[in-house]
Amino acid sequence: MSDNLSSAYLVLLVEGEEDIILLKPWIEAKSTKIKAALENGSLIIDHLGGASNIGYKASLYKSNLCNVYAYLDDDEAGRKGILDAEKKSIIKANEYTLSFCKGMGNSELEDLINVNAYKQLIIDDYGVDLSISSFRNSSQQWSNRVRDTFKLHGKIWNEKQESELKHKVAKVSAALKLSSLDDNKANPIDALVSAMELVLEKVR
Helices in the chain by DSSP H: which ranges? Predict the structure, then answer.
């Protein structure tokens, strides 16, 4: 663990590198307190490399006297990671937010993005149009909807493709800052910001 990470007052833990790219401009735009904390190093964002690592990473930072807050996908892996960490008394109920979307059994961070932020990118780079009904099927989380839409367009879909696409979507959406966040799905981001501000208020 690098010195700057271990010395931070608060560490926001997210699942992947693309989550850092996307979340950072959103939470900075919603909170001047968070923006200032990121700039002065009292707040750091780190990725887990998968939800199952939440217990390990959280305990590592807490052993270095850092406060920890987690933002994970509201899917099977995210919920299991949090429940396991809670069972081991590593994460408390006031130390996490899941990327919940009303009406969806499973959802992820990408589900909160306005599709217009990246729709043209996917047409240009992959020849896939997200306007078709398979992508609009809101009962499934983003990754599954994209997978089905790619296959209907006769495109290869695998873990490498998914990772590459998530990175591209995160970058183009981050460049648009808060305008890429779907206003109808912003509740988990607002909850995340409020919770982090409460912790940062205690910085001496």
Answer: 3-6, 17-30, 32-40, 54-63, 76-87, 119-126, 133-136, 142-152, 159-175, 187-200
Q: Tell me whether residue 29 is exposed, middle or buried, using C-beta atoms within 10 angstroms of its C-beta: 0 to 12, 13 to 18, 19 or more.
A: middle
**Which two structure tokens, joined as six digits, stand for 1?**
């663990």
Rounded CA-CA distance 204/196 in Å is: 15
Residue 104 neighbours by CB under 8 Å, 6+ apart: 74, 111, 138, 139, 140, 141
pLDDT in tens, 20-42: 999 999 999 999 999 999 999 99
187 vs 183: CA distance, rounded Å? 8
Whether the predicted model's global pTM rises above the 0.85 cut: yes
Tokens 């994209």 belong to 146
Q: Convert the pLDDT of each residue in 190-201 to its tens digit.
A: 999 999 999 999
Q: Please give the single-letter amino acid code of residue 174.
A: A
For the record, the structure tokens of 165 come out as: 């696409």
Which residues have CB under 8 Å from 116's CB, separation 6+?
none
Phi-psi region of 98 (alpha: psi -120 to 50; beta: other; left: phi over 0): beta
